[in-house]
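Issue: ligand-bound run for guanosine-5'-diphosphate - logging full I/O for the record.

Environment: standard queue, default settings, no custom constraints.

Inputs:
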Amino acid sequence: MIVNKTDILLGLQWGDEGKGKLVDVLTPQYDIIARFQGGPNAGHTLEFEGTKHVLHTIPSGIFHSTVMNLVGNGVVIDPVIFAKEIAGLREKNVDVAGRMVISRKAHIILPTHRLLDRASEASKGSGKIGSTLKGIGPCYMDKTGRNGMRVGDLLDEQFQEKYALLKAKHLQLIQGFGVSDIYTDNELNEMEEAFMSGVNVLKGLHIVDSEHYLNQALKDGKRVLAEGAQGSLLDIDFGSYPFVTSSNTIAAGACTGLGIAPSRVGEVIGIFKAYCTRVGSGPFPTELENEIGEQMRQTGREFGSTTGRARRCGWLDLPALRYACMINGVTQLIMMKADVLSDFEQLEICTHYLFEGKKIDYLPYDIAPDKVQPIYQTVKGWHCDLTQLRKESEFPAELSSYITFIENALEVPITVVSVGPDRMQTIDRKV
Ligand code: GDP
Ligand code: IMO
Ligand code: MG
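Outputs:
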């Protein structure tokens, strides 16, 4: 019997690579789009017909009536944000309920998880992670600590008791951080009210045993695309720890986050920006804290889709990308936002790091500024507008060279190049 494989699309840098845009573009080739980890810390932007849409927990296939969208067991759901997202999509006449199924095993973000996130960050002072404060870390902590609440629990008669117990535990934990003014009782009451109404919305949706749903779909010949959130350098195991998120953002996370066996994985599509960005704290070897970085930020509109924070910008980092390709087993690459580099006559590409006096081409244990210094190769920029391009044959020679340089360094083909935020600004190199 032939069973279909699941393709995975995931970010190779520190998130915000353009996953939402590309999943939307690729959706017509699939039957199911499945989110496998993360939660409302993600912000995935899609643009078409002159309108911009930002999704947080809902998979990026939702605008197509031809596919089902699945929220996997590896995702953490905040019912408040989820209900808001659904209401926003309904206003746009998107039939969310009819196009989405949710895993019974996905964990729930409680209001007190968000408070715990705040307390934890406040207690760290200048060493804070720069979390989105959506309660992601505390929720995954309860998952691995075996205390969490899952979607399935919302349907349980004991739900209120379980909720009250966990809340009481969280409030005690918050005291332990020793930071004051984390919340007021009034605020918590309001948060809980919104939570309970979000829970009611969630209970009305199509809740399934998603591992069975997906494996059956694969047997039935359905085509599945797993959509990642965040990026490989934010992975809990392989990212720039502790400045990471709390889930496995890498390809292996799609197996645990969906219940799909490794032997059922097909293409691993790694997506990266033609440069680098990072939002929040943590090391960033190629960061440009100067006017070049500022120009990238303005041209690329590098402000967070979830928090609005300015994203830190820098040159492309090949040692980091090589590492991400290795960990994920990337089979094809997609390069985003090439148009943003059009301002520059010359571009720098970080090909190696200087580490303990030696030139290396891999990512060492610690990439703090006192440990690694980037070594750059200067290349000529294309220095012309790319946003109107629709075919590879129209590429300026310098862009083709930039692509070849990266392909040679990473030994993986770049199959798609994106030259603007709109669906139409996507150039397929396979045809
Ligand atoms: P995601 O989290 O990976 O889905 O990415 P985000 O949506 O957070 O951030 C990517 C941003 O870049 C969004 O504002 C997109 O609209 C925009 N974008 C995506 N692709 C391109 C591109 O090729 N060029 C430009 N200029 N913007 C792009
Ligand atoms: P998408 O899916 C970029 C960053 C935060 C912070 C760290 C931990 O849109 O690419 P968390 O809220 O998880 O505790 O934050 O991870 N971060 C992201 N950065 N894109 C994201 O998602 C991110 N999700 C979390 O800024 O540094
Ligand atoms: Mg984003």
